[in-house]
Amino acid sequence: MAIGGTKVNVKTAKVIRYVGLIVPVGLFLYGSLIKYDLIASTSFLNNGLFYAIIIPWLILAVYQFVFPGKSELSSVTRIVLYHLFATAYLLCVSGLALPIVTTWTLLFLATYAYFGDNGLRLSVITLLIVVVTDSAYHVEDTKLLTANIIAIITVLLIGVASIGISRIRETESDALDHSKALEALERDRILTLINNLADAIISTDENGIVRVYNASSLSLLDTNNNLNGRNIDEILHLMDGDKKRVSLLKEMQKSRGVVVRDDMTITFSDDIVRLEVTYSPIRGTFSRTRGGDNEDGYVIIMRDITKSKSLEEERDEFISVISHELRTPITVVEGTVSNVQLMMERPDIPPQRLKDSLMVAHDQVVFLAKMVNDLSTLSRAERGVADTAEDINVRILIDDIYNEYAPEAKDKNLHFDLDTSPSLGTINASKLYVQELLQNFVTNAIKYTNEGNVTLIVTKHKDTVEFAVKDTGIGISKSDQSKIFNKFYRSEDYRTRETGGTGLGLYVALKLAKKLGCHIELTSRLNHGSTFSFSLPLKK
Predict the structure, then answer these.
(1) Dihedral Cα 388, 391, 396, 399, nearest 10 deg
(2) What is the Cβ-side half-sphere exposure of residue 109, based on CA atoms within 13 angstroms?
(3) What was the pLDDT predicted at 1?
(4) In sequence order, what are the beta bridge partners of 393?
(5) Residue 102: which pLDDT band, with cuts at 50, 70 and 90?
(6) How many C-beta atoms lie closer than 10 Å to residue 161's C-beta?
(7) In this structure, are strands 415-420 and 453-460 parallel, antiparallel, or unpaired?
(8) At 533, is the pLDDT very low, low, confident or very high (cuts 50, 70, 90)?
(9) Contacts for 34 with CB less than 8 Å, ≥ 6 apart
(10) E strand or H helix at 14, and its extent?
């Protein structure tokens, strides 16, 4: 408690309570010795007055010991009563006998502890009044006056020394408390900082026991359990690139500086998470001054790089495949054009042969153009170019696509049919994405249908409009249906191989569908045709 003075902590209050109980008991024993003339005293008046002073004091001592003061008024009342009983005891029982009067220093300390300098001054004034009163009563006794002066000086010196020591301890205690508060503040700031970082951060002691971690660590490890006090190897079951278990503690103990590794994985159920793990020893000031290799602990920073690693591998695979896919048509074009140049120098080469060679080169150039177009569409979808939604009249959109591809179907002797609801309404989406998605399905249907028909079906439902392209072509086997949306995938079916294709069309279609927020449905049966469909919400 703090009542006009210094803070009285629990331990100090407990000591004061015990002293407040023990001192009156001791004074009772001392007064009893005076009563039976075992100790001489010129101030002892009579037995009745002795008991009148000491019994209430003992009752007060027991009461304050059992029921500590909870309020300022209670503390003031008890300190005042202790001073009154002590004053009466010195004047009417013991006098200013040196062993007894020195106990007044305990009143100095208790009063100072609870009420500060002002309370201490009042306690000193009370003692001086007692000395003056006792000296006036025994003014003719020179020896007693001298003893009183020595006693008061002794008490004051002891009191000053005790208060001085108490103040030094208070100053040191305040400095320590201030230091602890600053340390706690800095710790809170650091914890706030690391808890707002996206990377998982864990700090361990030299034995690998977790001491500090942030919220991202729990998120990365997919747990709500407390990590403090647990061994890092118990928490992180890491595997290296060769699928061998890695003891992170042993790796940290071998490190002499910052180590970054991106070849580690951790498994949660069926998910494998690839991690970039950065770890480093922590060396405090004491560790540096003693010049040893011992660490005070370790700090670990972890980042989920599953997506970035997958993108990196996809990029490498993409570059490898696209290089391979481009090499063949470019080689064919280069070789064919070179042959045509040579054949043109020879008059015996028939024109039809030159025409056929140029047609081969032309087909390869068309193939390259389609690949570039698919790559351009894929790039737009990946970067979100032209993804601004707009109102689209479905009837106009479908008529435009039908009119664009009807001649191509006619050239292959196919029937290109249009099956629509009477009223189709309006959708709100990226017009470019919807057009390219439908064009992709229509061109594939015409390409892989040798006879029969291709039907563009658009059906209006209550809140959606469904687009479907149905053909009577070669169909897709069950094994291929799960793979045809992979980039550069082409079926092993010889009929597929006979037609040129980049293997990017349906992969691009899948990307466009995701951008539009819809799902592509596929139904197909080998040698009976295929149907690709998707639905978009109608504008209300």
Answers:
(1) 40
(2) 24
(3) 37
(4) 426
(5) confident
(6) 11
(7) parallel
(8) very high
(9) 40, 41, 44, 93, 94
(10) helix 10-35
- Residue from 395, 514, 414, 537 nearest 458 by CA: 395
Report the distance separating Cα 407 and Cα 326, nearest Å. Answer: 29
CB-based contacts of 69, cutoff 8 Å, min separation 6: 75, 78
Encoded tokens for 519: 């799902």
Segment (H or E) for 265: strand 259-268
Rounded to 10 deg, the angle between the 72-89 and 47-66 helix axes is 150
Residue 460 parent element (H or E)? strand 453-460
HSE-CB at 461 with a 13 A cutoff on CA atoms is: 10
* Residue 460 one-letter amino acid: K
Phi and psi of 421, rounded to 5°? -75, 155
For 466, half-sphere exposure in the C-beta direction (CA atoms, 13 angstrom radius) is 13
Q: From its phi and psi, is residue 227 left (phi > 0), alpha (psi between -120 and 50) or beta? A: alpha
Residue with tokens 């599953």: 306
SS3 126: helix
Residue 534 confidence (pLDDT) = 94
Q: How many Å apart are CA 168 and CA 151, to the nearest integer?
A: 26
Provide the sign of the torsion angle of the four alpha carbons 404, 537, 421, 456, taken in this order. Answer: positive
Comparing CA positions, the residue from 208, 203, 179 lying closest to residue 190 is 203
CA angle 76, 81, 87 (to 5 degrees): 130
Distance CA 171, CA 7 (A): 12
The pLDDT of residue 56 is: 93
Q: What is the DSSP letter of 209?
A: B
> What residues contact residue 252 under an 8 Å CB cut-off, 6+ apart?
204, 208, 279, 281, 298, 300
Backbone torsions φ then ψ of 338, nearest 5 degrees: -65, -40
Neighbours of 418 (CB within 10 A): 13
At 2 the pLDDT is 38
pTM for the structure as a whole: 0.47
